[in-house]
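Aim 2 progress update. The chain analyzed this quarter is reproduced below.
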Amino acid sequence: MSARNLERQTRSFLSNEVPQIQQHGGSFEIRDVDEENGRVTVAIGGACSGCGIAPMTMKAIRRRLPEEVDDLAEVEVVRAGGPRAAVMPSVTDEMEDMEEYEDYDPPF
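Predicted C-alpha cells:
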C-alpha cells in the first residue's frame, strides 16, 4: 500500500472511530508514514496534551489501528509538545506508567 493510502486510512480511522479526540478539544497529526515498514507515527495534542486519559487513548490507538488499516504493521503514538502542552512532559510520562492504565479498554 502506498504511503498516501496508509495516511488516508489512518486519518479516516482516527476521525471516525476516535471522535473523542476532536470532540474534547484534542487534535491529531500524522507525522510520519513509512510505507516500506508499514509504520505510522501519530501525534495527539491540543487538550490531549494534559488529559488524564490520554495514555489510555494512545494505547488503544496503538492496539486497534493496525487491526483496521490494511498493511499497517506498527503505530507509534506520541504527544505533541511545545508551548500549547497543558502539563509538563515529565508528568505525562509518569501518567503513562500508572497501573490504572494497564487493563483499561476504552469504548472506541
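The chain has a mean pLDDT of 80. The helical segments are 3-17, 20-23, 54-68, 89-96. These observations will guide the mutagenesis experiments scheduled for the next reporting period.
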